[in-house]
Amino acid sequence: MSDPEDVINWRRHDARLTSSGQPTEAQLAQIKALGVADVINLGPHSNKGALDDEAGTLAELGMRYTYIPVDFEAPTSQDFDAFCAAMDRLRDAPVHVHCIYNARVSAFFYRYAKEGLGGEVDQAFARTDSIWRPGGVWARFIGKADDAPLPNRYAGEDY
Questions:
Q1: Is residue 40 part of a domain?
Q2: What's the rounded Cα separation, in Å, for the pair 23 and 21?
Q3: Is residue 1 one of the residues assigned to a domain?
Q4: pLDDT per residue as tens digits for the range 102-153
Q5: d(CA 14, CA 85)
Q6: Which domain holds residue 40?
C-alpha cells in the first residue's frame, strides 16, 4: 500500500516513521494498513479538528496509542522528554506521530535530530520549514539561537 496523500501535511521520515496533522478515523485505518501499530499524538484532544475518541478508534483498530498533549503556547522540556521516551520505547517499530497540523511534531523531530537522538538535522529542518517557521516559544524550544519570530505562513492558526 502507498502512503495516504489526503492526510494533512503527511510526511514520510523513513521506512518506519511517518508524521502528519490530525488523521480522520478512515485515515487511521489507512495508516494501520501501512504496518503501523503505534501512534503518538502531540495534539490536545480539546483542539479544533481533534477526534472525539482517538484512543477508542485506535483500540478498535488494534493499534497502541501514546498521548502527549502539548500546549501550543507553552511546549515544555517534560513534553520533549515524554516524546523521547516514547520514541526510545518504539525505536524498532513502525510509528506514526501526529498533532493537529504537524507543526508541533515537526518541531519535536527537528529538536530530536538536533540533539543527536535520531534523524538527519538538515532533513528535519526541511520538513519543518515545509510546514511552518517556528518563532517565539517554539524557536526557544527547538534551540534556535535567536528567538525572533520568523515569517509564519499560518499566523493565527491553532496547530
A1: yes
A2: 6
A3: no
A4: 999 999 999 999 999 999 999 999 999 999 999 999 999 998 755 444 444 3
A5: 19
A6: 11-102
**Is a pLDDT exceeding 90 seen at residue 87?**
yes
Residue 29, classed as helix, strand or coil, is helix
Nearest 5°: the CA angle 82, 88, 94 is 110
Burial of 2 (0-12, 13-18, 19+ CB in 10 A): exposed
What is the side-by-side order of every strand in the sheet holding 64-67?
A: 11-12, 17-20, 95-98, 38-41, 64-67
Q: Evaluate whether 68 touches 41 at the Cβ level (below 8 Å).
A: yes
The CATH number of the domain holding residue 20 is 3.90.190.10
Q: Which three cell numbers stand for residue 96?
A: 506514526
The distance in angstroms from the start CA to the end CA of the chain is: 28
**Which residues, other chains included, contact 2 with Cβ-Cβ below 8 Å and sequence gap of 6+?**
none
Residue 27, H or E segment: helix 25-33
Give the count of domains, the chain. Answer: 1
